[in-house]
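ugh ok fine here u go
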Amino acid sequence: MIETLTRNTLIERLEALLGPKGVTTDAQDIAPWLTDWRGRYHGAALAMVAPANASELAAIVRLAAETGTPIVPQGGNSGMVGGATPDSQGTALLLSTRRMNAIRTIDAAARTVVAEAGVVLQTLHEAVAARGLRFPLTLGGKGSATVGGLVSTNAGGTQVLRHGTMRALVEGLEAVLPDGSIYSGLATLKKDNRGYDLKHLLVGAEGTLGIVTAATLKLVPALIDRAVVWAGVESPLAARELLLMLEAQAGREMEGFEIIPQRCLTNVLHHIPGTRAPLDGAHRWHVLIEFARDDAAAMPPEQLAERVMAQAFELGLIQDATVSSSESQAEAFWKLRDSISEAERAEGPAMQHDISVPVAEMARFIIEAGATVESRFPGTEVAAFGHMGDGNVHFHVAAPKGADRSSWSDHPGKEISAFVHDLVVAAGGSISAEHGIGQMKRDELARLSDPARLMALRAIKQAMDPKGIMNPGKLIAF
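structure:
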């Protein structure tokens, strides 16, 4: 615990370093940033600091290292696992990257952009679109998620099928390491064999090894047009067969393939204003597919979608389908998918699991694991949805009707999550596909990981952050 004199001296030194815009100690101003997006974790902070550039951030880290002060980095505070929420002791600095929001350069020829950590994803999309380019990663929280957070959690989103996760899109990084030194690795090098790749260590490290200050990101040509399909299918197995058929027929023009159960659609239609069902009648399962064109020589997406979905209908892979006739309708289809978590939160308590299994086993896992969980915990209802092309399942277990929202997530919620994670590991999967570990899954990672993985994670953390000041209590016990 920092003594009062040390605390006051530390804040004075921070104020001298950052000026009045860079340090906040007022409890009311800090309060909104001390609770995670889901409202599960609540913390306290000594102060909130907001550096304007990498040099200021490095000076903060050096001061923190000198005084042994923990630092919790935070971007848009839209994470799902409590990774950007400090603990309750009130000794940590909450470090906001939101002032570091410059897009430094856009290189149209090289198809890269250098964006600082605080750049909001939606802002990045708009900036590169003005240059005829596209950053091919999007997600429901694009209006608040920041570049630094996306890098630090190795975010996925709905376009992984074609473009990969954030790791595949990061060409270079700039970051402040735990001793306050600045790692300058923004250059895009196709070949670099200077030992360990610090870029890949920092991607997905959740701020436990350093704080990302800027990233060089890969861009692709802007879309010429797209077509979004909503289709009803009988089962996840039928959806899997449809995916294989479309991969063979549509190739790289297929950017997204999402599977959605009727339960999720029903919740969205009930809780989210302005939404409507794309198809007449109910279907047990739905798929949302996006075909996109960035090459004028390719077949127009609407024509491609009509052709391949007609084949799918003839093969009995779909029950019904509709193709978006306008950009607004395409956005309306995606709004249904992006609103699932919001609608579920309004519906009642649920245990959410962001997991992955081998792609070829995803359909079977959804069916079998769902039935197993519902049998083991009577009254619960499983809603499994997600990115079928990459094995990422959002496996949500809703509480029985009438369950107490305030207590159910602890009991039996934690028992349910442990049971689900055991099923995932038995299937050769991962307990975290795209949201990270944070504090929510830290103990489960320690319980379920093989000794070699844990040894390596702890050794890397110890070597790079021997004082344990970088986002303590997250990812790995230290």
